[in-house]
Design goal:
By secondary structure, the protein is mainly alpha-helical. It has helices at 9-19, 23-34, 83-96, 101-105, 111-114, 123-144; strands at residues 52-53, 62-68, 71-77. β1 (52-53) and β2 form a beta hairpin. The termini are far apart.
Length: 146
């Protein structure tokens, strides 16, 4: 029997934060994260060609995963009218940025469920969150291929 790889400390801390509160408060915590999604860097504000739309999300969410000196930088854009999706994008921006590529690629695909979010939001939204993580990983695989 193989064991799942340990989560990077940043994602483990976020998971602990979510699991330390009740189901209703997980949604409120996700909304807090929504307010912490960083704005686009000025040099990327007029470069929509550098972002990929996450079609699994109902809201227009765009993401770009870059690699600088072997470390990941996740940039996401989500409308304020979609706070749960914006919140999860913020979780990934904060939890993945600064990690080595191999650690990000090893994050379990079911990370949204590991936060207990499947109890707090609809299955469709959880699917969108999984799609966001999958696109980040796909972009990193493409950008790290030699």
């Amino acid at each position: 029997m193989t064991t799942a790889p340990a989560l990077p400390r940043s994602l483990a801390d976020i998971r602990e934060e979510f699991l330390s509160v009740g189901t209703r408060d997980r949604l409120l915590l996700l909304l807090d994260y929504a307010g912490e999604l960083p704005p686009l860097p000025p040099e990327l504000a007029d470069r929509p060609d550098l972002f990929e739309r996450v079609t699994e999300c109902q809201a227009p969410v765009f993401v770009s995963a870059e690699i600088h000196d072997g470390l990941v930088r996740v940039i996401a854009q989500a409308p304020e009218e979609a706070p749960t999706t914006r919140g999860f994008a913020s979780v990934l921006v904060h939890g993945l940025s600064g990690l080595p590529v191999d650690q990000v690629l090893a994050v379990p695909d079911d990370y949204p469920k590991m936060l207990g979010l499947d109890e707090a939001v609809s299955p469709l939204r959880v699917r969108g969150m999984g799609g966001l993580l999958a696109r980040i990983k796909r972009q990193l695989r493409a950008r790290s291929a030699v």
